[in-house]
Amino acid sequence: MRGAGAVEVPLLPGIETESAAEPAAAGRAGNGSNGAPNRFADTYDADSIETLEGLEAVRKRPAMYIGGNGSEGLMHLVWEIVDNAVDEAAAGFGKRVDVTLRRDGSIEVADRGRGIPVDKHPDRDVSALEVVFTELHAGGKFGEGAYKASGGLHGVGASVVNALSTRLDVEVRRDGHVHELSFKDQEPGHFAGHKFVPGSDVRPSARRTKATGTKVRFWPDRALFHPDARIDADEVRSRVKQMCYLVPGLKMTVADNRPGESAELFEYVSRGGLADLIKERSERSGGDAVSGVITINGIERFTEKVPVDGRITEVERECTVDVALRWTSGYDSDVESFVNTIPTSSGGTHLAGFDKALTRVVNGVLLRDNRKLARLARDSSGAGTRSGKSSTAKTNATKDDVREGLIAAVKVQFSEPQFRGQTKQELGTPAVEGIVARITYEQLKEWFEPGGGPRSQVKAIGDKVAAAVVNRVASKQMLDTKRKAASLGSTGMPDKLADCRVHGPEAELILVEGDSAAGPAKRGRDSEFMAILPLRGKIVNAAKASPKQVLDNAEAQAIFTAMGAGAGDAFDIEAARYGRIVILCDADVDGSHIRCLLLTLIHGYMREMLAQGRVFSAQPPLYTSRVGDRTYRAYSDEERDRITGELCRGKRRPENVKWQRFKGLGEMNTDELRHCALDPATRTLRRLTMADAQQADAAAEIFDVLMGSDVAVRRDYLVENSSLVDEATLDI
Q1: Annotated catalytic, 480?
Q2: Catalytic site includes residue 513
Q3: With contact defined as beta carbons under 8 Å apart, do 435 and 441 qualify?
């Protein structure tokens, strides 16, 4: 292995390289802080201080450079070489990069760029090509060198790949010749068949060519990696596709020639750049597009202080910002960020600037006059005043609200970005945050305002973000309701609840329509395990109302509080105070409507009760008749007529069978109600299912149309469906 001192390396026009030695962490032998002797060493002197020169530091601590020794680290070796090739294309040299996974476990990356310089380095007694692959922190990407903006900035990519490989071959097409150099265990030389001949000469082969470019093939040192570490071809294809979006016009191919893998050549090229990426991601998200793809771009300059020739100097940089985004009807966000050609999975200052500007422009421009949020702010004003917080601030969109359904990509390009860590997953350059924020805010503001983007799309985005805000506020209220319910005892239940003495799986909450039926129900129940909750009036239609409207409804609140298990996503069936819910309504149209509304509420906010078959509907009769010592009950006009016919098969006349019609549960006495709806031995219960709930959603909608307060909607419905009615049956 070749060593090197820590000296400054001039800029090289080409692939990034490495130079200086990395000292190992100083040994900590001897006494620890507690004075205990180190059991691994008896002495601690100058001989105990170890230094690692050249590439030894990389092999000693590979995780510092590639993030680990598993599949992720192995893949990182591929990205280091691919990034260098893509940087050439991004700089305008060559528009094709080919990646090949070989049968023998090697990886080959070929570009059509300028080719790494092969002449002798001015400060070394070896070629620039050898310096590139053997020295840390050397390359053409420092300062304003061969690249204005590039992916590899630390100058360790190519040499780290060599350091962690048993063999590496480089072929450079440059100046009309094909030049070759190989490395075996990091030592330069040439292979003659299977024999390796050490040497630093970069000899041109007999082949001549007009083409230019670099081809790197390396064999990872499997002894340094986990036995299960492998190159994932699908991940390579995905990353390659992503690269093409970052460098429009670049064509990249992937060939997987390994045994047992698909030999089909993958190739991709993008002309639209980030806009194409957003289109592809939004189609894959499964949601419908709420807006078209919005593109933002701009350039600003900034200054920063960096060491130049050993002195801190203020230098000026140019930063290019490209953003593409669109909203979809889904709820998940997919926001990616890039610096030059490198994806920054952990974000950084550029993404922080984007989020800050996006939230600011949405609140300040898009939602400025939104009616939903204005109403929400009014509803929250009382609580906001008591808590000392502005109701407007409470209803402002947060970053998560704005990002709901957002598909976006943010890319910045500038020289010498500061990354946090060698793996370049997070940008740390402070000035970029403000640049991205200003450009994003100004151009989105223009798009949101009249005369900018299509008004239908602007309105759709505003409605979507406003709905996210309303749902977030409602969810918080729902969580507060659950916490409150969990802390309540029987004395904290709704005033109108007649609770039972024992709670648990065998207890049941009976929802009764109206106060008039509540009296007989309370007297006829078994108070050991039956609780009665009377409902006054029709509850909210949970299929149409927002979560906030549902939680603000007094009857819905009473049900949630009595159950004590929360509501919606926060509903916990294990915490429920009752094991069953029984709906007890009149056997008429109004009763059917209330039953539909209750079932719709349970389906939307306590769904697990339905899924586990714990919701029932009591079946009170519509008619009752006593003949002799026997009582007959009918649940419809047809059943009444059928029973009458059966009773009159002898000498009994139909007019002698006297039927009492119950207009409501309140007309039943305690014994009648107990017998038909409360006594487990005699009552009839119908188990309600998810299918019943889905039918109830539709039925509740029709009830609202036909029996609601909106006359215009009812008129339109009757006109549209008038052809279905036989006019001869109408008394007009």
Answers
A1: no
A2: yes
A3: no
